[in-house]
Predict the 3D structure of the following.
Amino acid sequence: MCSAASAPGVPRALLLVWTDVPADMEAEFNDWYDREHMRERVEVPGFIRGRRFAAVSGAPRYLALYEAQSAAVMMSDAYLALNRHGARPHFVDGPIVFRTLYTLHV
């Protein structure tokens, strides 16, 4: 194990979220995701940061990368409460979302 991996603020878990959004809801979805959705999640204790990327080409169009102190953050009451609150109702059936949670291997 590398000693830097145990330093405070070093992520030990990553949540990757790939999203494709229908063109007719893309602007509204991006505004909501960037201003509300991501901000709410990175304010949960244990999250280090969240960043969002757009594909240069290909699909899915967007990738959100959330860094956390541990995978347990995604099981915390604070995080689960956000997921119970959910997305805006009209986004539930529109975007295509894939999520994968990773933990530090070394």
About this structure: The chain has one domain: 9-103. The chain has a mean pLDDT of 85. The helical segments are 26-42, 77-85.
